[in-house]
Amino acid sequence: MAKQRAKAAYMISAVAEKYDVHPQTLRMYEREGLLQPSRSEGNTRLYTDEDLQRLEVILELTRELGVNLAGVEIILNMRMKMAAMQAQFEQFVASLNDQLERIPRGPDTEARNTLMRVARAVPAPEPAKRKTRV
């Protein structure tokens, strides 16, 4: 039986120090619904690596791009929706490819070959690239 590796968890003081933010700022992000750290049995906030990645996005949006918290919420929600849409798209393309593979091969496969070319020509969407500021 393989052991499951425990997820790393960081207390608010360590996160605040690492990212040079006040602990109250992290609490505010939680009140605003931007971060949702888990809690220990003693009710201490515990931030996972995923929480830290989300915090990095929040800090980049606010510090570097000047986005307010309402805008950050909208952007984060849009990112989640886009990720879900991309997953649906990839599932659709995989399903289409599966269906195309089931079409019998034979002398009358012009339509099948055309569909295969179309399905394979559809590029998967690439994640948004960061624009670097000069």
Structural overview:
- This protein has 134 residues and is mainly alpha-helical.
- It has 2 domains: 7-67, Multidrug-efflux Transporter Regulator, Chain: A, Domain 2 (Orthogonal Bundle), CATH 1.10.1660; 80-127.
- Helices cover 59% and strands 5% of the residues.
- The protein is built from 5 helices and 3 strands.
- Strands 1-3-2 form a 3-stranded antiparallel β-sheet.
- Strand 2 and strand 3 form a beta hairpin.
- Helix 4 (69-102) runs antiparallel to helix 5.
- The chain is elongated, with a radius of gyration of 22 Å.
CATH top level label of the largest domain: Mainly Alpha
What is the H/E order? EHHEEHHH
CATH architecture name of the largest domain: Orthogonal Bundle
CATH fold field value of the largest domain: Multidrug-efflux Transporter Regulator, Chain: A, Domain 2
Bulk shape: elongated
Number of strands: 3
| Rg computed from alpha carbons, rounded to a whole number of angstroms | 22 Å
Cα end-to-end separation: 52 Å
Strand content: 5-15%
What kind of sheet is the major sheet?
Answer: 3 strands, antiparallel
Provide the fold topology.
Blueprint (H helix, E strand, L loop, with lengths): L9 E2 H8 L3 H9 L6 E2 L5 E3 L1 H16 L4 H34 L7 H12 L13
Antiparallel strand pairs: 1-3, 2-3
Helix pairs in contact: 4-5
